[in-house]
Design goal:
four-stranded parallel β-sheet, mainly beta, 13 strands, about 110 residues, five-stranded parallel β-sheet
């Protein structure tokens, strides 16, 4: 359980082969970048979080990431400063990233 709010960049950033990370039951809100930014993240789970009002995307899974699971999160009003207003973006070359149907988009 955590509150991540008001950062100049992403709320939470996983870089350079961060592995076996679970982000659970957090509120990730009003950050200037993405709510969660994962770069080459491996075997990670983002679950049961409230992700709202971030300037870019709610979650961005970037190049080189694999086996990332996104489940049970609530997304609201992310992408305020991004032209596409995306809640989640997955890089084309990420492998086995799953966005489960139990996420809520408001």
């Amino acid at each position: 359980n955590c509150l991540v709010r008001g950062n100049r960049g992403p709320g939470i950033a996983l870089y350079k082969r961060a592995a076996d990370v679970t982000i659970r039951n957090c509120t990730i809100a009003r950050n200037r970048g993405d709510g969660i930014l994962a770069v080459t993240a491996i075997d990670c789970v983002f679950t049961d979080n409230i992700i709202q009002g971030n300037n870019l995307r709610g979650i961005f899974v970037r190049t080189g990431s694999r086996n990332v699971r996104i489940t049970g999160n609530r997304f609201e009003g992310n992408g305020r400063r991004h032209k596409d207003k995306q809640q989640i973006r997955i890089a084309e070359d990420s492998e086995a990233t799953r966005i489960e149907a139990d996420n809520v988009f408001e």
